Amino acid sequence: MFAAICAALADTEIRVAQVADEEVISITGPAAESESRLPNRINAKIHDLSSRLRYVYQEYLDAGDRVEGSLVLRFTIQEDGYVCDVGVVEESLHNPDLVDSLVDKVSHWFFVPNRDEKHPGRVTCVYPFVFTNSVRYSPLEVRPLRDGAELHPRRRPYWIDKEINPQLGELEDIYDVYLLGNPKLTGTITFEFVIGGAGTVDRVDVLENTTGAVSLAGDVSKKISGWEFSSLEDTNSGHDVVVTYPIYFGSGRAED
Q1: Distance, CA of 221 to CA of 192 (rounded, Å)
Q2: Is domain 15-134 classified as CATH 3.30.420?
Q3: Would you give the DSSP letter of residue 116?
Q4: Residue 66 — left, alpha, or beta (φ > 0 → left; ψ -120 to 50 → alpha)?
Q5: Given CA atoms 135, 140, 146, 152 in this order, what sign does their dihedral have?
Q6: Under a CB-based contact definition with an 8 Å cutoff, are residues 180 and 211 in contact?
Q7: Burial class of residue 142, CB neighbours in 10 A (0-12, 13-18, 19+)
Q8: pLDDT tens per residue, the chain (256 residues)?
Q9: Gyration radius from the chain CA atoms
Q10: How far apart are the first and last CA of the chain?
Q11: Nearest to 185 by CA among 208, 209, 212
C-alpha cells in the first residue's frame, strides 16, 4: 500500500474555503415569470457560479484572514444576461475589502439571455451566501525562492497542495515496482523542488531518504520534475517558490 502523506508529518495548517449558496430570496421585475428567470434556473446557475466566490474567499484565507460570515446581495440580471447594480443588503463578514472583492466578482457574472417575448426585460434578485472554512493539514512547506519576495496567491500552500494531490498516483506505480523486489521497503523521502512562474518544476533535490533505496528516490525525483502547476500571468522569477515535501512510502503511518 502506498501512503503519500503521513499525518505525523502533516503539520502545515491549510484553511479551506467553503461557500454555501442557499436559495434566492426574491426575484422581481418585468421578466420574473420568464422561463430563464424562474427560481430553479437562477438557483442552479448561481450554484455553478459560486465557485468563483470561493476562490476569492480562499485568497483571503491564504493571506491569514480567518473571517467567516454571511453576505446577502441584491443584483440585476439584464435581458442580455449580464449582471449590473450589485449591492449589499446585509453582511456579517466585517471585512470591507473581502466584501468589495466579492461584489466585484458577482458584477462580472453572466446568465442565459432572456428570450421570452411574453416576459422581456430584466429581473432583480436578492441572494444569500454563507462563508465558512475548515482546516486540513499538509506536510508541505513553501517559501519564496528569492529572499524578501512575497508568495503569489496561487503559490500558497492551499493551491500547491491541491495541485500535488492528483499527481501523487504516478508515484504509486513507481513504488509498486520496487515492492516486487523488496516487499518490506518502507520509509520517508523528503524532496525539495522549485516551481517556476510558468508552472514547471525547475529543480528537484532529495533532502532525506529513510527507505535506503537511492534508486527509488531518483526515479521519484524524475517524476516530480515533470509535474505541472498553474502558470502565472507574470512568470518572472520573483514568483518562483521552493517546496519541501516529505512522502511516506509504505502501509500504515510513519512514526514521529
Answers
A1: 9
A2: no
A3: -
A4: alpha
A5: negative
A6: no
A7: buried
A8: 444 434 345 678 889 999 997 899 999 999 999 999 999 999 999 999 999 999 999 999 988 888 999 999 999 999 999 999 999 999 999 999 999 999 999 999 999 999 999 999 999 999 999 999 998 888 889 999 998 888 888 899 999 999 998 888 888 889 989 988 998 899 999 999 999 999 999 999 999 999 999 999 999 999 999 999 999 987 676 889 999 999 988 864 444 4
A9: 24
A10: 20
A11: 212
Residue 47 makes CB contacts below 8 A (sequence gap 6+) with 21
Distance CA 14, CA 238 (A): 23
Q: 226: which residues sit within 8 A by CB, 6+ positions away?
A: 201
Strands 187-195 and 201-209, sheet pairing: antiparallel
Kindly state the cell numbers that stand for 13.
495548517
Per the structure block, which three cell numbers stand in for 148?
Answer: 524578501
Q: Which residue has the cell 475548515?
A: 134
Q: Which CATH class is domain 140-249?
A: alpha beta
Please report, for the chain, the start and end positions of each structural domain, with discontinuous segments joined by +. Answer: 15-134, 140-249
